[in-house]
Here is the input.
Amino acid sequence: MGDDQVSRRRPLDALVVELATGLIDADARNVERVYSALLRDLNTDFGTDTCFLRHNDHDLDASVLVAEWPPRPSIPDPDPLGNVPFCDADPVFASTRDQTTVMIYRPSDQPRPYRDRVTTGSGEPSTTMVAVPLVGEDRTLGVLGFVSFRDRVWSTEEIDAVTAVGAMLAQVHRRVAAENELRRHALHDELTGLLARRGLSEELRTRLRGDEPIAVLFADVDRLSALNDFLGQGIGDRFLRTVADRLTHRLPSAAVARLGGDEFVLVVGDVTTAADGVALGERVRRTIAEPMSIGDDRVTRTASVGVTVGTENPYELLRRADRAALRAKASGGNAVVEYSGGTADEALSRNGLELSLGEAVATGALVLHHRPEVDLRTGRLTAVESSVRWPHPTRGLLGPADFVPVADMSNLAPELGRWIVEQTCRAHATRLSRTGRADLRVHVTLSPGFVASVAFPDAVAAALDRYGVDPRLLCVGVSETGMVDSVTRTADALAAVRASGVRIALDDVGSGYGSLLHLKRLPLDVLTVDARFARDAVGDAGDRAVLAALATVAREMSLDAVATGVDNPEVARTLLGLGFGPARGAAVGPWADEVVPAVTGTAGLPPTGPRLG
Here is the structure.
């Protein structure tokens, strides 16, 4: 094999496509493994001796080794190739800080400090190196490097291929960095710096691994809302930060979390008896009840503290502590109550549900179900509706109404919403590929809490881009029942997403809360009519009048009107007569793990039946 020729397993274009496919599912949890596999393939296909990936840490102003192939058999300590500060770097390493084009270093081009660093770190002489920059929007993110222990010539086609790989790695770097930042925010409460629900969940799991009892204390501040009402939100926030500081410093061995506006949870190890737990609870109660001066105001608030000690799972311990705190508050507050047990089917507390929901999202325990949308006039499958479900370990399969409002009342709305959008786009990309239906749309309803959040537009754009779904095929629905207090924020967020081509639907129209106001203020393409009207339309003249009016309004506003609740052929025929086309319901197709395009429905429309393909 000559110096300028390499025997390849596959053509360069096929290599780039295969590598791109391998990077699609890279995330913060698996990225190290993905990087190693990619470097292995690159090293083999380009016939180099070693391949490496480095990231620029702009906070440390250093180049950091992320992955290499093959792994060095012996790594010096300290590793001269590990973290290389740019201020102390040789000219080659220093140039990678702001590098924007591919650089090729031949043996005669390399300065001696660089050759010495490589030889010390790898035990090999430095010969030909190609450095491919990972270029971000405003700075260089790192470098992909190829080293040959000979004088290797690189062709223009090879440079083009590795440049494409570098661009893909830059995308992965940005995506993973965003995930890590979101994770950091998810683990901690922004106001106090304490653990948030996700962080508390991880702390509980960690402390329970040793099978030793731990104490969980749930402290609910009494009458905090009155403090906010009379002295202002700013005073209330300063009060909470002061409480957080006191708890952290006075119980240094405890992991302290803030779950909601006025709720704190402490996890303490080395507690073996309920009496010890109650004693800790008294310390917490007294700590919160101590008067504090905030500006010119002297503030005092008490707390209701629930205590439990055990080795059960995180959800169960938090549930018990929460129930005990509720009993303390019910007794008048300013008290400590030990959990005294209850029936096995006792209702799950909201905070316990929040904690287990956070775990479900983090571990991928949620699932999507799908059902078809069919045009009643033609019987043709026009769209698929996707909806989240939660196979709960004790409560069975939960629908979105059972837990999405819980996410909206907590800091879980962005995390849950992002998961739903990601999985919807992923499933639809597979569906489009399998069916060959380039015009098939997907509809997914997202919670108002997520839609009104800053995370919403970027989450939708990222999911569409990641799975290659045309934005015009995605329809985002938002229920009118959840927008009482956030119509303006919701409208702005929906407009931003709609500008990319995504269709917007107002779901459950007619269920209340000012449908006409929402029709006027929201940037809409679709109206989805509340299922209750369709179900009673056959025998209720009032419901038929409402449906006819909604169909007329949709036509006048150039909106598509989708009927739901089409549970039998008679309802379908009634809706056809009222002017509806697209429809969903049991007669069209049930909720399932996936919509099978070959299925024929019985919506009772055209005599030949629906054509679902």
